[in-house]
Amino acid sequence: xxxxxxxxxxxxxxxxxxxxxxxxxxxxxxxxxxxxxxxxxxxxxxxxxxxxxxxxxxxxxxxxxxxxxxxxxxxxxxxxxxxxxxxxxxxxxxxxxxxxxxxxxxxxxxxxxxxxxxxxxxxxxxxxxxxxxxxxxxxxxxxxxxxxxxxxxxxxxxxxxxxxxxxxxxxxxxxxxxxxxxxxxxxxxxxxxxxxxxxxxxxxxxxxxxxxxxxxxxxxxxxxxxxxxxxxxxxxxxxxxxxxxxxxxxxxxxxxxxxxxxxxxxxxxxxxxxxxxxxxxxxxxxxxxxxxxxxxxxxxxxxxxxxxxxxxxxxxxxxxxxxxxxxxxxxxxxxxxxxxxxxxxxxxxxxxxxxxxxxxxxxxxxxxxxxxxxxxxxxxxxxxxxxxxxxxxxxxxxxxxxxxxxxxxxxxxxxxxxxxxxxxxxxxxx
Length: 430
Ligand SMILES: Cc1cc2nc3c(=O)[nH]c(=O)nc-3n(C[C@H](O)[C@H](O)[C@H](O)COP(=O)(O)OP(=O)(O)OC[C@H]3O[C@@H](n4cnc5c(N)ncnc54)[C@H](O)[C@@H]3O)c2cc1C
Fold this sequence. Notes:
47% of the residues lie in helices and 17% in strands. By secondary structure, the chain is of the alpha/beta class. The protein binds flavin-adenine dinucleotide.
């Protein structure tokens, strides 16, 4: 069984646990009022379960993310659970109202808005309000939110959780699942916010290699001991400690490790895309950074039976740079054949091209092709077929901006590559 499935299976069982423990699995019979109240309880239990599981899944423990197919996939599951939980909360409120309406409008109003001394119900309303404030930017109701602001808003989600737990603990027939899930969610939040940053590795910036006008590669050495063990294609959270940085000091950002596993230094290629990445172009050698990780499960850990196609667009080349450097250190590729496509706008943007070409020249089963959009137009099926005449036999890994990823996936699917053989890593988490 793939490790990604282990996480998903465990999650499916955990989703059912509070529902089964509360004895709400069987419907109560044909009476419409009883039925609506039963549905209200089921949606309420499921909603809180999903929201607590979303919080639990924010743990970010290196290695555990692989049970779910890597951290970026774990974030998607976290996102889906949060969204589904929110929809269920709204259904829960609506079903409570509908149950009351089978008797009278007054009964429905009383159920939803009882006197103020019914603290549990009002805690439920407060939880819903906190959820709305938190989710509006998350689901981009008012456009793209700033990343830092969005992260700060996550603290409101913790308030929503506590209020929802107060609501459930006061009303539930069986309380232990809520104590259990509540404790796990709290532990996950404490780990993320307090423990994990304190346990981050301390590294020193040994060198800042300028590869282009908006791209540097940092070389990092541990302050004590050896660099963290990692695999090609994994990423870390890096928090610079240099107070002279124009932006981003003390702020964590995810970056892929472009060094070969086992190398003396960790290497990270940083493209200036916003405030923090632009400031990092001028980080001082000798200054400290904190590193958490490694995370992710992007590139295959085992030799592949099929020919492999790697496509990196722009800064999305970094996972493959790490993998090619690893091959060069071993003197061979673990896979029978690897075709690497480096997609850029112009040759001048292909900052890793010279090194990749030199390494590929010494690796018989690795070949490199550079696609220059300005010279050849948008990457299309004909160009790809020229590089890989037997395209449909390949297992494909893509790393690049979301529109590029979508475009390439469409081409690959149309060319007969099954969906299950296309793997992507996204460089955005929102
Ligand atoms: C798994 C992964 C691997 C990555 N690897 C690399 C790499 O090897 N090299 C590289 O140059 N870039 C990499 N990135 C992208 C890099 O993290 C963002 O460019 C950087 O965080 C942008 O920060 P900023 O303040 O400069 O830009 P902003 O303008 O603040 O942000 C630009 C976009 O980056 C994303 N972003 C911003 N801050 C964060 C954050 N703290 N955490 C997550 N996403 C954020 C948001 O989607 C935002 O819309 C990677 C991202 C991910 C998710």
